[in-house]
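> example.struct
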């Protein structure tokens, strides 16, 4: 989703803006632009397409100056085009704005401003902001921005410049992420830390409803009412190298290979002497006893992790768990009581629907536990308790290591609840923990056979449609495998509960249609095999995924078998998803797609 970078300091801002925007490319975008104060005034350059297009324009005619704002746009209002790209300016071209989010009442404001003489050139909601600020300006840009924000409804983060006060950069955050980087004689704004990490590790994270005024030697944080805020600076201790490709062809492949480490880091010191230690959460055994039901809420891949989480908690703790897609949750009038524990799952911690669900849950009096990968994210800050997944920065749009780390977080939390409530005895807990601790090595063993998946993927990539089937936890993984394939290879696929196929979908099985069948779930395996036979009898071409030891039997029913190291059925998703990630990756490559930046998608979805 849109990315914002801003700079004020002693260097040439154009270079900093472009390098920052490059670090934000992973969020997904369709156009880019910059505005810089040059000797000629506030100059804007913007272009539809990849950053390289903008760079080629800037090479022809550089914009030299020490203060500027930059933006990568992911279209919401108005198609991707040069004119709809940000920054946007007012009629006099003296004010320039970059924006992430949506202004809900923009049409109303647009009519009012147009009636007063503003000349609109784009279809965007953002352009309204530059005209609005210009119309409210009375010699003080901070006050004009504050007044403008009061008139705007929606979710947004802004970077604002005006030629009238060329030493100042104003930043605003209302529900879309924005951070401030603090340097020596230079300061920065960015949608995310990697955008500025090359230049500084000292960061302020703006909260909703806050703004910042930056000059080259000073940063002032304040409320929208102008009350100055003092805040401790956050020191970033991770390295940019960890956010770079480290020799892999793509971020996705690198992140798939980082999973053994992500598992180890997420378990880390949370396991000691055969017990789970979750010091970071404040839920006492007494509070856990009060929990009557659990709601898990998330979007996309994180939702699929939540489906696994539901089975894990129900099996280990024996309390009812519902898993909801966040965009549906708050509109379905869910029954949330003070004894409901709501678990929100979000890699980025900034997903608008998930954040809205979190707020709704809190409004209804529930305690909220967040599972997130980003320390200091909105979800992390607003939840009562947080389990951080230590997957490290995930850059590829398609989530891999964040998903599997979310699974690890669910295993830990399920075990913790069962242990603290005395529902499972210590021998059982220790057995599951021992199996958990083997997972990193088992993942590594699968990764070493990545070439097998390349062969399958090259076959699959020739088809336009396929199916994923499984029962129980295999079905939850099938959903994730199907999503991954769709998003990066653009091959249509559907995931089905294997027993449900014959209730309609079997009509679509015809000669050679690829079917990915997962069968790792103990007593359900035989039933899945029957469903596989229903498929092969109709010409389906089946790739079976089973535990080592079951491959001989499975080979009788399928065209190819891939065996994963054996673990407890409850933990199977943490292994069986790995070959499916690789399958999607190689299918995407075989089709010549941009693996890390699939079309139409954004990494961090900060609009509803
Ligand atoms: C798919 C994918 C998305 C995200 C979803 C939620 O690979 O990454 O489906 O899982 O947009 O994002 P987060 O986890 O950041 O809330």
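> example.seq
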């Amino acid at each position: 989703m849109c990315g914002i970078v801003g700079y004020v300091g002693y260097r040439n801002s154009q270079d900093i803006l472009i390098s920052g925007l490059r670090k934000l490319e992973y969020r997904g975008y369709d156009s880019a632009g910059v505005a810089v104060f040059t000797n000629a005034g506030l100059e804007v350059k913007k272009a539809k397409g990849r950053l390289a297009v903008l760079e080629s324009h800037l090479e022809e005619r550089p914009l030299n100056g020490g203060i500027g704002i930059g933006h990568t746009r992911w279209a919401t209002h108005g198609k991707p085009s040069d004119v709809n790209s940000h920054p946007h300016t007012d009629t006099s071209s003296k004010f320039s704005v970059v924006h992430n989010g949506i202004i809900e009442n923009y049409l109303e404001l647009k009519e009012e401003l147009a009636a007063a003489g503003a000349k609109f050139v784009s279809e965007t909601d953002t352009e309204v902001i530059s005209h609005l600020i210009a119309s409210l300006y009375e010699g003080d840009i901070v006050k004009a921005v504050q007044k403008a924000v009061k008139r705007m409804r929606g979710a947004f983060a802004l970077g604002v410049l005006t030629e009238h006060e060329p030493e100042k950069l104003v930043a605003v955050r209302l529900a879309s992420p924005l951070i401030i980087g603090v340097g020596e004689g230079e300061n920065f704004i960015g949608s995310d830390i990697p955008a500025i990490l090359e230049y500084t590790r000292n960061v302020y994270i703006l909260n909703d409803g806050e703004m910042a005024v930056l000059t080259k030697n000073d940063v002032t944080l304040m409320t929208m009412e102008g009350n100055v805020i003092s805040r401790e600076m956050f020191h970033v201790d991770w390295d940019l190298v960890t956010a770079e490709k480290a020799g892999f062809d793509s971020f996705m492949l690198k992140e798939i290979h980082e999973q053994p480490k992500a598992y180890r880091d997420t378990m880390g010191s949370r396991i000691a002497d055969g017990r789970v230690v979750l010091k970071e959460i404040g839920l006492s055994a007494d509070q856990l006893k009060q929990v009557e039901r659990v709601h898990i809420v998330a979007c996309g891949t994180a939702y699929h992790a939540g489906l696994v989480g539901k089975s894990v908690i129900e099996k280990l703790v024996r309390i009812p768990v519902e898993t909801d897609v966040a965009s549906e949750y708050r509109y379905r009038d869910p029954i949330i009581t003070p004894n409901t524990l709501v678990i929100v799952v979000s890699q980025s911690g900034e997903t608008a629907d998930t954040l809205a669900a979190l707020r709704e849950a809190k409004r209804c009096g529930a305690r909220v536990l967040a599972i997130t990968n980003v320390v200091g994210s909105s979800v992390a800050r607003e939840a009562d308790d947080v389990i951080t997944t230590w997957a490290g920065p995930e850059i590829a749009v398609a989530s891999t290591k964040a998903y599997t780390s979310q699974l690890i977080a669910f295993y830990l939390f399920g075990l913790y609840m069962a242990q603290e409530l005395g529902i499972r005895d210590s021998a059982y807990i220790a057995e599951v923990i021992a199996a958990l601790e083997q997972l990193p090595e088992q993942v590594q063993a699968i990764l070493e056979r990545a070439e097998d998946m390349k062969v399958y993927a090259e076959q699959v990539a020739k088809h336009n449609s396929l199916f994923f089937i499984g029962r129980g936890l295999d079905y939850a993984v099938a959903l994730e495998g199907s999503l991954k394939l769709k998003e990066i290879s653009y091959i249509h696929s559907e995931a089905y509960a294997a027993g449900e196929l014959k209730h309609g979908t079997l009509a679509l099985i015809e000669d050679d249609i690829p079917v990915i069948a997962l069968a790792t779930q103990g007593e359900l395996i035989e039933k899945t095999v029957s469903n596989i036979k229903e498929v092969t009898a109709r010409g389906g071409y089946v790739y079976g995924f089973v535990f080592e030891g079951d491959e001989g039997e499975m080979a009788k029913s399928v065209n190819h078998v891939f065996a994963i190291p054996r673990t407890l059925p409850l933990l199977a998703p943490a292994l069986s998803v790995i070959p499916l990630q690789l399958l999607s990756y190689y299918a995407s490559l075989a089709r010549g797609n941009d693996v890390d930046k699939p079309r139409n998608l954004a990494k961090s979805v900060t609009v509803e």
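> remarks
The chain has three domains: 3-237, 252-444, 450-590.
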